[in-house]
Each structure stands twice: as C-alpha cells, then as structure tokens.
Design brief:
653 residues, mainly beta, Neuraminidase, six-stranded antiparallel beta sheet, 2% helix
C-alpha cells in the first residue's frame, strides 16, 4: 500500500489533541492542550483559525460541536465540563456555563479531564488523569447524558482513546498507562459498558523508549487506528484478533490522536506533540491519504437538560399514534409519530416535506457530504434535482432531448460532473447545480444493445460501493414478469461485468463493509437478498433471502420493496412502493424493528443525509395520477440513527 503524509498548513501545536471532524462544516477541530488554544482547520480555505478562552488559566482537553448550534462547543477545563461560544474566526472565546463538575475531593486535586468523544447518540464519554500519571492512578472514566455525569470506570492512569463499533455493539478504550486497548460490550440504548477484555497490548514494544497507546479512531470496516505516543506511528488493528494490519509511519515521535475527515471521510488526520523541546516537524498536524479506508461520521454533543428530557418523555404516546399537519386543499404533507421500539424505548420521529420537491417519479437519492446537497431524479421526466441543505431550496434541471433519468451520482475528482442513467446508457452530465437545463457530455457505457429483446429495457436504481465502483441494474419498461433485466458492475469506461441475469425490477442496493455483505432488491421477487461481498474485487456470491414481503402483502397485492439504505449500526431501511412506509430491518434476524409511516403510498427510496447524516430523506412517486402529497420528497428526523457517507463514482478510463 502506498500512502502519503503531508502537514496541514499552519497547524502546529505544543500538544495537539482530540481531533474532531465536523462533516456539516467540513472543518477539523482540535486543541493545543499546553498552548491553551482551540484550532479550526477550514478544509475549503486550507486555513487554520485559533482562539483562547478569555480569563481561563487552566488547560482545555477537547472540543466537540453541540448539536443544533453553529457556534457552541462542549469542552473540559480542569475537572469541569463547560459550554463555550466561538464563531470559528475570533481569537478569543468565552465560557457560557458549567454543565458538570466532578472530583472535588482533595485526593483528586491534581486531576484534570483528558480525551473526550460522543457516542452515536450524542452522549459524552470522557476521562480524567493525574498530572503525575506515572505514580498516581486517580483518574476515572465518565459518561455525561441527560441524567447527569455517571462513573463508568475508576482506577485509571491516563484516560485516552475512545471509539465505538455500533454494529458490533462494542466500545474500545485506552488507558495509556496500561499499554493496552480494551474492548467492552456496549449497550447502544443506555450507553452502558461491561465485560472488558484486552485486544491489543503494546507493552512488548517498550524498548529503549516508552511507547504509549494514545488516541484512536475506527473505520467503516471496524478496524481501529491507534496513535502511539513515543512510537512515531499509528497502528491499524483488527480488534477481532489483535493483529497489526498496517504500521503507518509518522515523521515525529509524539503521535497523540487520529480522526478520519475530508469530503469523503478518507483522509486520516493525525495530531502530534512537541514536548521536551522536540524539533520540527514535531507538533505538526498531518493528513494521511491513500490508505484505502474511510471513517465514520463523528457525533456532536446532544445537550438536553434533565427537565427537558422529563417533559419530552411525559408527552410521548406509548402506543403508536399519528399527529398530522394539514395544509391548503386539505392535503396532508407532514406528520409526527410516537412509537415504542422493542417494547422498551420510546421514539418520536417527524416527517416533513422538502420545499418544491414534487417529482412524478422521484428516485435515486444521493447525499453529497462535500456540498451538503441531496441529488435525485424525476425519472419519468428526464430531470435531475438538487436540494441545497443550507438554502433549504430545490433546483431542477431538464436534460436536453432526454425523457428518462434513473439515477445521478457525483464523479470523484470532477466537480459539477455526474454519472446519470438514461435508457440503457450511463452518461456523463455536467451541471452547476443551479441551471434549469443541461446536456449529455458523453456516454461511458451502453448495455443490452446486441439483442432486440432488450430494446424495451432501461436502467433503474444504481449506487457506488464504498470503493467507488458503480452497481446498477436494468428492467423492462413494461411487463416486468418477462424478467429481462440484469445487474451490472461498471469496471471502467466501456467495460462492465454482469453480476446477475433474470432480473424483474432491479432496485435497492446497500453495502455493509464491516460485515462484508451486499444487499439487493429485485422488486419482482418481493424480498431483500444478502450476498457475501468481496471488498477488494467487488464480487458478490452466496445469495440468501433475509427479508420477505410475501406474508406482509395481504390484500395489498401491489406492495413492492423498492430502494433502500443502511445505517451505521448495519440496519436496513426498505422503501415500500404502495406501502406508505419504510421498514427498518435487522438483516441478521429479518425482523422489522420500526415501521416508519409516510403520508403517501408510493415510497420509492431513501438516503441518510444532513450535516450529521441523521436525517432520512425519502423519495416518493405520483404514478397513475396519484394526488398530492404523492410525489413529494420528505425528510425524517428523530429516528436516533445515522447513515454512512455515500460514495462518488471513481471513474477509470
């Protein structure tokens, strides 16, 4: 593997720590612990901004954005957890208030908070350490949520790296003075941890210098990246067997922490220290590219007071109920639902329409984290569409001389260029995201052109796997029962591989890179199939049915599974055409975990998006002259889930 290491410009720290990538703003936040500064690296500007806390002599140990705000952050100072306000530009910032104070007893007087991160639900995990951590193990590990600050572990020497694998229900923690990484069973609902076991021990690396495991992060495949303080490296670890898969060399000794970032979450940012007068490049922040891995979105802190939490729970309806909003012409276009999940957890979600989002056959939603835009198509109108999150505005574009457009996917390294499915072709369409018309630039693939029996076929759904390979399928425009469709993988321009023949209606596609699984829907089969998936080659094999709609159809013989997506925990979200719902499915058991109701029948597809990838965008159709709100595109919030970054097409000529 060939990877490249480069310094981030003007990002020196005496002790750089706690990198946090904010996907919504495309910023890297970090702290200079002993420099007593917060830093913000603006990816678009390639510029670093610094600030100090006014009238605060103590050190700050981490910085995490707060959900629902643009200028507020949670940090820890000494033995206090506080909220600060910073516009990201000013050279100073202020403390708003303390939200937790701990360890006021005399034996903890030399303690201070160290590393901190939020789990998938926005709960803050952070630990303390003694200033003389070599001699005194007076640190503790805590969790801060709506119920307050809870002790998780005592007898900590040097509390450091924290990371979660939500799909495996595991939490990983580094106490640097143990020289080990421990794995815990992790309860996603409560944030509880138990049953620790050692998965990495670097004590055998102690030779002439002390090497300590420090901060860490995790990639989409579940591999852990551990910074080694004193070791000049980051270790990529397989937590299942504790093996070192890759030793990433860093050009300075004091490597402190790591975080994935960048528009595609494929850049590994590495913080370092320059203690004891270490010369440059010690203290620089580095970016590592070419690792062939992607990270998971980091979570903001969800600040919720105990009073607010109690009020929220009190008003929830324990049995499934709908609260509908009515607009002009008596058309229901938004709704709220309060439901009980697994007979234990109460969840309230909200369904709202996007403005000016009608499409006769809305399909192919693709969230682009770099531009914070939702791309989709109005399939039967030959239109491509872009919803701008910041502007809360929809742009629509007619592809000149075309009547079908079945998907739209941005192309890696080619701004304002997209792969679009038209009839039996995949074409490149340049579009600035604003103009009302655009043209096909060129065709990169044509399929099924050598046999007249495929003349009535067209491409339908398509997506890129985590490595940027395009998977897409065809179907007949009419009489799907003839099963003339196919599933393909685009290899490079004018080259493709047939993955599956005998397809009725090629539809939903999703990948679980951790589990090495591919999920696929042929709507005419009324089921979801799981395949073994080769990450390196993109090959699929050994199909098996993991969810079957036959027994759910009842009198609704037109109920079909359509598009789908996957969340960070590995659960699938299956759109039901003519079913007025999306099913959240556990692929391990095939059980429906949540039935997400929508106020129209023809649900076509879904994709996670938004700054935190926690908004579920849903496309619908108004086929056969269905009245409004059919054809509206919706956003669903409050599901308590996050998606994975969608991948652009990596086009090889």
């Amino acid at each position: 593997m060939s990877y490249k290491i480069e310094p981030v410009p003007d990002c020196y720290c005496l002790l750089g720590e706690a990198p946090h990538w904010d996907i919504g703003t495309q910023n890297l936040y970090l702290v200079d612990v002993f420099g007593k500064k917060f830093l913000r690296y603006d990816f678009a500007q390639q510029k670093v901004y610094r600030c100090e806390i006014e009238n605060e002599p103590m050190i700050a140990s981490f910085i995490i954005p707060i959900e629902g705000t643009t200028d507020k952050f949670v940090t820890a100072i000494d033995r206090r957890i506080v909220i600060i306000t910073w516009d990201g530009l000013s050279k100073t910032c202020k403390i708003d208030k303390d939200i937790a104070v701990t360890e006021q007893q005399d034996k903890y007087k030399n303690n201070h908070f160290n590393d901190g991160k939020c789990d998938l639900r926005g709960r803050l995990f952070t630990g303390t350490m003694n200033n003389d951590f070599v001699k005194h193990r007076t640190g503790n590990l805590y969790r801060l949520d709506e119920s307050g600050l809870k002790l998780l572990k005592d007898d900590v020497g040097l509390s450091n790296g924290l990371v979660w694998n939500d799909a495996a229900k595991k939490f990983y923690f580094v106490d640097s003075m143990d020289f080990k990484v421990r794995e815990y069973d992790y309860d996603i609902e409560t944030g509880g941890i138990k049953n620790p076991k050692i998965i990495l021990d670097i004590e055998n690396l102690q030779k002439e210098k002390m090497r300590l495991p420090d901060g860490m992060t995790i990639d989409t495949e579940g591999f852990i990246y551990v910074a080694v303080f004193g070791g000049s490296n980051v270790l990529k670890i397989d937590p299942k067997n504790g093996k070192v898969l890759l030793d990433i060399k860093i050009p300075c000794e004091q490597v402190t922490s790591v975080a994935f970032g960048g528009p595609n979450l494929d850049i590994l940012y590495v913080t370092t220290g320059a203690l004891e007068g270490k010369p440059s490049p010690a203290g620089e922040t580095f970016k590592v590219t070419g690792l062939g891995a992607k990270g998971l979105p980091m979570t903001k802190f969800k600040s919720l007071s105990i009073e607010m939490a109690s009020q929220a729970i009190a008003i929830l309806v324990l049995l499934s109920s709908l609260l509908l909003s009515v607009v002009a012409d008596n058309v229901t276009i938004s709704m709220e639902a309060n439901i009980r999940v697994h007979n234990e957890t109460v969840m309230s979600y909200k369904v709202e329409p996007l403005p000016d989002s009608f499409a006769e056959l809305g399909e192919g939603p693709h969230w682009d984290i770099e531009t914070q835009s939702l791309y989709m198509v109005d399939l039967s109108a030959g239109k491509i569409m872009r919803y701008d999150y910041k502007q809360n505005k929809m742009y629509k574009c007619q592809i000149e001389n075309e009547h079908f457009a079945s998907f739209i996917i941005p192309i890696e390294g080619a701004p304002n260029k997209f792969a679009v499915g038209i009839e039996r072709r995949i074409v490149i369409v340049p579009w600035d995201g604003i103009s009302e018309s655009c043209k096909v630039e060129k065709t990169i693939l044509t399929v099924e052109h050598s046999d007249s029996k495929f003349d009535n076929n067209r491409f339908n759904d398509a997506k890129c796997d985590p490595h940027g390979r395009l998977f897409g399928g065809t179907m007949a425009k009419t009489d799907y029962s003839k099963r003339t469709g196919h599933l393909y993988r685009l290899m490079k321009t004018d080259a493709h591989e047939l993955l599956k023949p005998d397809v009725g209606i090629s539809n939903g596609l999703a990948w679980d890179e951790k589990a090495k699984k591919f999920y696929y829907i042929d709507s005419e089969d009324y089921n979801v199939k799981e395949y073994d998936y080769d990450i390196n080659t993109g090959a699929i094999s050994n199909p098996k049915v993991i969810f079957d709609l036959h027994n759910l159809r009842g009198d609704n013989i037109n109920l079909l599974p359509d598009g789908m997506t996957i969340d960070a925990e590995g659960f699938l979200y299956v759109a039901t055409f003519n079913g007025s719902a999306i099913f959240k499915i556990d692929p391990k058991s095939g059980k429906i975990l949540v039935e997400i109701k929508l106020p129209c029948e023809q649900i076509t597809s879904a994709a996670f998006g938004g700054p935190n990838l926690d908004i579920l965008y849903v496309t619908t159709a108004a086929a056969n002259n269905k009245p409004l709100p059919n054809g509206t595109t919706y956003k669903i919030t409050g599901l308590g889930a996050k998606g994975l970054p969608m991948t652009k097409l990596k086009l090889e000529e």
